[in-house]
Specification:
single chain, mainly alpha, Fic-like fold, 15 helices, 61% helix, 5% strand, globular
Length: 375
Amino acid sequence: MFSKDTDMIKDINKPNNDLKKLPPEVNLETPEIFRACIKANKALAELKGCCMRLPNPEMLLNTVILQESKTSSEIENIVTTQDDLYKATLDEIDKISNPAAKEVILYREAIYKGIELFKNRGIITANMLIEIMQTLRGTQEGIRKICGTKIANPATKKVVYTPPEGETLIREKLSDLEKFINDDDTELDTLVKMALIHYQFEAIHPFSDGNGRTGRILNILYLIKEGLLDMPILYLSHYIIVYKSVYYKLLNNVTLDDEWADWVLYMIKAVEETAKYTLNQIEEILRLKNETEQKVKEVLQSNIYKELTELLFMHPYIKIKVLEDKGIAKRQTVSIYLKKLSEAGILNPVKLWKETYYINTALFDLLSKGIEMKN
């Protein structure tokens, strides 16, 4: 979880049971942090405004959240191809045969679970985080109970961090974090506070697995809680994976030397760049969707073109049964629609075993290519 190669000053083999409560006793209201917050908050406001103007936000939610789920899982070395992932979205969870694709789908479900729990409770709690972890891992396991957990460099197997241990202590530290998350009296900027929360959760490392993914979902939930986002439509993991080595290095610098400022600036920059990236991606998807909608209308000469196009953008891979189940038309008519769209070059039919998938190749290429991110 933490940096790969650092000259250790503290005893990294000793559990970090003395992990201090938030906020840290350092100045996090520097001019540099202040300026970074202004830019990041502006970028978030533009993203939020764009989403509020969408005629059907659900269409983009499925696509963008799936990309976030895929990238966040890749940070933990859970890698699946776009092909396997989009095929898996059309199956029920217990019927997904590809293990990595299944984990990504579970991550997406965990995001939705977190949103549902927050809407019901109005606050973010430790128990919510446990439920999120259980959803993304498909387990009933709770707080880490076994002692001896160590975080190691996956390449060298060298220990880089030992988190707090003992279920009672871990629960105490999560309780302290819960209070900090929901304390609305703090004068810290929301993005500064988000950075502190993310570090603290990763340092507590409350679960035997799934800490990184749960922590990244927590980021999005906190931004929604504070009103900076309305939907979980921020592609934050993309920045982290692009600058993964810096992420781990700065996490460890906080642990070893209380170097909070650089960590906070990194996370604020991640939010700014990610908001711009996500907004750019949404605009590209909408542009492509509008172009495709006109083509579908011309090819089919049917008033069902709007609903059909939206489904093609919710599911880059689609099957006859999906359109039939969504009420587009009966099976024979849907089959004719898909054949016409394939002949027009809008879809690409691919037969796998007895199943034919129709691929929205333009959208697939857009999502696979992504948009270059600059630091």
